[in-house]
Amino acid sequence: MPRAATVLAAIVVTSTPALAQHDADYLVRINDSALELGSTVPGDDPVYPFPLKVAEFGSEGFANFTNDPGVDSEPGALIPGMGIGFDITAALREWDGDDFDTISDDTVSVRDGGVIVATTPASDQAVPGDVFGTANSDAGAVFHHHVQFFLNFPDTTTVDGVWLFRWSLWTDEPGIAPTGDAYVVFAQGTGVAQVDDAIAWVEDNLLTPACVADCDGSGALNLDDIDCFVAGFLAADMGVADCDGSGALNLDDIDCFVQGFLAGCP
């Protein structure tokens, strides 16, 4: 049997998850008619929203493979019998020591039910996945399921690095919106030592709420931002004045800017 097939067979046998919450896993719940991801450390209260997780390829003993993160739920957080699926939402990014701006030559594939169902694309576009689990049918509706992640499938050659994987979870239950982008920072080999810096970058650049009224990018709100927005609006400059991202300039953008200005910068 080829080496890759031997490793794959071993993974099938040894990677079945235990039915318990893991601190490596996301938590998922319904909040305000949308799925929301959170995180927990055993013994502590859950934290929502928390769309970032970290996993290490090779931690289960197989290069380029990890079973983490899984997706769990607290009792009563979901609807009995509801299915939860995923889509990949962007290309795989690679840490260069400073940022995740570079699209990686590597790929991450997601396997469910013994089948590769989605692989990261070469450019930023959505790749549909599948329903990978259903909540229990009793009133608790507990959910605990894992997909499997492979780097450069089916190649088992160990690659060192840190990668940013972006996906979204959704449900087949009508009327409930998907999570929006969630993130997994994967690392392997020498890349493990760089994970803390990579996480900090994601938190600062992808998780920190944008200051929508900081029109001039100074980091502070003042009259210069008002002048900047008004000038952009009068010039029909979409890059400056399309505050709500609708693709059109109207009173909604003015309301968006005013509310953002009053709320201040985080």
What is this structure's SSE topology?
Layout (H helix, E strand, L loop, with lengths): L2 H12 L11 E5 L4 E4 L13 E5 L8 E2 L4 E2 L10 E6 L4 E2 L7 E2 L4 E5 L2 E5 L7 E8 L9 E2 L2 E4 L9 E11 L10 E7 L6 H13 L15 H12 L3 H4 L9 H13 L3
In words, what does this structure look like?
With 266 residues, the protein is α+β, with helices and mostly antiparallel strands. The protein folds into two domains: 3-207, no CATH class; 223-263, no CATH class. 20% of the residues lie in helices and 26% in strands. It contains five helices and 15 strands. It has helices spanning 3-14, 195-207, 223-234, 238-241, 251-263, and strands at 26-30, 35-38, 52-56, 65-66, 71-72, 83-88, 93-94, 102-103, 108-112, 115-119, 127-134, 144-145, 148-151, 161-171, 182-188. The strands form three sheets. Strands 3, 6, 7, 8, 11, 14 and 15 form a seven-stranded mixed sheet that branches. The longest helix has 13 residues, at 195-207. The chain is globular. The model is unreliable at 3-21 (pLDDT under 50).
Descriptive key words:
single chain; 266 residues; alpha+beta; 7-stranded mixed beta sheet; 4-stranded mixed beta sheet; 5 helices; globular
